[in-house]
Design brief:
Length: 289
């Protein structure tokens, strides 16, 4: 693999990381909580799509379209029934709550689907393996599709936050929920919508992961780490920065793999640590919304 090809494959991989990080960034930006169950919710959504595609025989795209409304409903109910109460308990309570939720999801998936690995690659045909060869670089169908969708989702949400009434309500609730309530913006409803969107984007990311590689009930924490690193690299709570952070993480991993395959994951972690040290050094901690 040439260096140019390594960078290009990293950009495609970064699109998947950015898609994973989208919901995590949105929830932090609006509610200032880190959802430790985010990766497991993504894997849960992927298993639903996998089950619909393999057991019911539904085309994967149709299975995903059917799963997204369920993910929106799950996210809304999760916020209304669990997270709203935990937010009243202080900063640590949502962390413990989402950690517990992650354990519940992992064990439920283990009980229902067994520890076996699953993949959607077998039912997506050439999408998972096909590519174009242009000059000295390879453009995979799936990588390009994920990058386009990630850019569209993150860019679309950024526009919604900046230019719509719904976005203004989210920004108001994020800045000061009590003052927002005084002008008729109920923070609870805004938070529920944000969580619904976050779980839906996680389902989308999980489905692409299942096409790109394999999933199992324990896949969630690994994806949470990559998503968290993308969010931190790009800037906490910034959707535009999350896209950039995902791309930087993906490129770092493929360049590390170009040097030596065993350095792939390590290179991504090193970039994350360097950004963490620079961003959170004394006098430079500036979370963005």
């Amino acid at each position: 693999m040439t260096w140019a090809n390594a960078v290009l494959q990293g950009i495609f991989l970064g699109g998947l990381y950015a898609l994973f990080a989208c919901g995590l960034s949105l929830m932090f930006g609006v509610m200032r909580i880190i959802n430790l169950a985010h990766g497991d919710l993504a894997v849960l959504g992927a298993f639903v799509v996998w089950w619909a595609a393999t057991s019911l025989g539904a085309p994967p795209a149709l299975a995903l379209i059917g799963a997204l409304p369920l993910a929106l409903a799950l996210g809304y109910l999760l916020q209304v029934t669990v997270l709203t109460r935990s937010l009243r308990g202080g900063e640590l309570t949502p962390l413990l709550t989402t950690f517990g939720l992650a354990i519940v999801i992992q064990n439920a998936l283990l009980l229902i689907f067994s520890p076996d690995v699953r993949s959607l690659a077998t039912v997506t045909g050439s999408l998972s393996t096909g590519s174009w060869r242009i000059g000295g670089v390879t453009v995979p169908y799936l990588g390009l599709l994920i990058l386009i969708i990630a850019t569209g989702v993150l860019g679309g949400l950024q526009l919604v936050l900046e230019r719509t009434g719904f976005g203004r309500e989210m920004r108001a609730a994020a800045q000061d929920p009590d003052t927002a309530a005084l002008v008729g913006v109920p923070a609870t409803a805004v938070y529920a919508r944000a969580t619904a969107i976050a779980v839906a984007t996680a389902t989308l990311a999980g489905t692409f992961l299942a096409i790109h590689s394999t999933i199992d009930p324990a896949s969630g924490p690994t994806q949470l780490i990559f998503a968290f690193e993308a969010v931190v690299i790009g800037g906490l709570g910034s959707l535009r920065g999350t896209l950039i952070g995902g791309l930087v993480l993906g490129v770092a991993q493929t360049i590390g793999a170009q040097i030596d395959p065993q350095y792939s994951i390590l290179a991504g972690h090193l970039v994350f640590l360097i950004v963490l040290l620079v961003r959170f050094s004394p006098g430079r901690l500036v979370p963005t919304t």
